[in-house]
Design goal:
Blueprint (H helix, E strand, L loop, with lengths): L7 H12 L6 E5 L5 H16 L3 E5 L5 H8 L6 E5 L6 H9 L1 H4 L5 E5 L1 H10 L1 H7 L3 E3 L9 H15 L3 H10 L6 H9 L7
Parallel strand pairs: 1-4, 1-5, 2-3, 3-4
Length: 197
């Protein structure tokens, strides 16, 4: 099982540097339940520090897909952190999915999502999700590193609540038998298996 990536901004930056900042790479930052706004600012600053360039935030809430597309392409070579996707319903996700080619750009995109938002993305926008692959990272409450203790505590909570081991979660995900509830999505990401979401 891959090691959990404890520094999401650093790891996203490292992967983007390997691919190239003009690769159009997509990632997901799974935001914390507590103080997501404060964590967002810290995460954006960490990401900007890694690239030594500003990170532009674009809020998708209330914007038609055409406006979001225009925002992503003005300019199209910077790093963009998209927020405001968590309340998207089936129609909104499908509209993004259908327009995925129009959203593609040279610069990297990071989606700032809750576990519920990530579930919606995976359920209703499979083609957009394919842009992301396994590039999903859990962000701690302070926007950066999630300590091994925080990770272990959350994994223990999930194990106790569902009476299931991490290995069983992975087996079920691999066989397609894992429920698509947000907690299972979070669990897979915490286990370093975002590729199974």
């Amino acid at each position: 099982m891959p090691d959990f990536i404890a520094e999401p901004a650093f790891e996203i930056g490292r992967r983007l540097e390997m691919r190239g900042l003009d690769s159009g790479a997509w990632s997901v930052a799974l935001k914390p339940a507590q103080d997501p706004d404060g964590a967002l600012e810290d995460f954006a600053m960490d990401l900007a520090a890694k690239f030594d360039v500003p990170v532009r935030q674009v809020c998708a809430t209330g914007r038609p897909v055409g406006q979001l597309r225009a925002d992503l392409h003005a300019p199209d070579d910077d790093t963009v952190l998209i927020t405001g996707l968590d309340r998207f319903d089936l129609d909104h996700w499908r509209a993004l999915d259908i327009n995925r080619s129009g959203l593609a750009r040279r610069g990297p995109i990071v989606l700032w999502l809750s576990a519920e938002g990530l579930t919606g993305l995976c359920r209703w926008a499979p083609n957009l999700k394919s842009f992301i692959g396994g590039s999903m990272f859990v962000v701690a409450g302070h926007g950066g590193m999630m300590t091994a203790e925080e990770r272990q505590q959350r994994l223990e909570q999930l194990t106790a609540h569902y009476r299931m081991s991490g290995e069983e979660v992975i087996r079920r995900a691999e066989s397609g038998a894992l429920p698509t509830e947000p907690q299972f999505v979070e669990w897979l990401v915490l286990l370093g298996r975002g590729d199974l979401v």
